[in-house]
């Protein structure tokens, strides 16, 4: 029984059909159909009921799905364990929000490099939601996200508390300006929208940017306002053109920390990373 066939079977179930599964797996529909047919022949059981153009999971398919998830989980854990052999070698895949990467990650990466000189470090930036999903999918070993995070598959270790502040250009009135924020999935976005609603802002339009300097640059020239960690604003090239105003603690205080899989093997490099950030 090939792992590729099991991954294909799982994709068909989770995506709801052959076409959607082929798109997720970046292959053609005939490959997906062929793998499922060979899997059924190998097992001697029908995995799906065909209903017109749709598929419905058969009882034997439901049994296989449970084992498939466990087998693929074990395969990912095995790959991770082999990839992360030893305390000074292997690979560590790290995710971080862009603001966290700019403020905190460099000194932590320096500590990992010093303590684990043979470790290859790979860093990815994205929103908190996207990073959590990548950790769950075993595409990242750990990620630094805004919390708190409550998920049955994830551990969350709080490391710092960021203070969000309202930011706008000198001489501008945020009540009359649109909000400028990160794309969907950013934890700061939800707080900014909540603050906007609570203050009765006249303009509810929003502009989205993918980088913090892009956001602050637009805010600095008076195109809108935003919520951003105070330290990010203070270190920005646009700081001299910005006005910083405090917001209530329930909006301002954002616990931020490291997430990792509960069932993943403990990694010395991840402990070094967390310790460097907490100290």
What do you see in this structure?
InterPro entries: LysR_HTH_N (IPR000847), LysR_subst-bd (IPR005119), WH-like_DNA-bd_sf (IPR036388), WH_DNA-bd_sf (IPR036390). Belongs to the LysR transcriptional regulatory family. It comes from Azonexus hydrophilus. The chain has three domains: 81 residues, Arc Repressor Mutant, subunit A, CATH 1.10.10.10; 97 residues, D-Maltodextrin-Binding Protein, domain 2; 93 residues, Periplasmic binding protein-like II (D-Maltodextrin-Binding Protein, domain 2), CATH 3.40.190. The protein is 46% helix and 25% strand. The chain is built from twelve helices and eleven strands. The model has no long low-confidence stretch (mean pLDDT 87).
Topology at a glance:
Layout: H1 3-15, H2 18-25, H3 29-43, E1 48-51, E2 54-57, H4 59-83, E3 89-96, H5 98-103, H6 105-115, E4 118-125, H7 128-136, E5 142-146, E6 154-169, E7 179-181, H8 187-198, E8 206-208, H9 212-220, E9 226-229, H10 230-235, E10 242-246, H11 249-252, E11 253-261, H12 268-278
Parallel strand pairs: 3-4, 3-5, 7-8
Antiparallel strand pairs: 1-2, 5-11, 6-9, 6-10, 6-11
Helix pairs in contact: 1-2, 1-3, 1-4, 2-3, 6-12
Distance between the termini: 48 Å
Question: What is the CATH superfamily classification of the largest domain?
Answer: Periplasmic binding protein-like II
Radius of gyration: 23 Å
Beta-strand residue fraction: 15-25%
Low-confidence stretches: none
Question: Assembly state here?
Answer: single chain
Supply the CATH class of the largest domain: Alpha Beta
Domain HTH lysR-type: 1-58
Organism: Azonexus hydrophilus
Keywords: DNA-binding, Transcription, Transcription regulation
GO molecular function: DNA-binding transcription factor activity; transcription cis-regulatory region binding
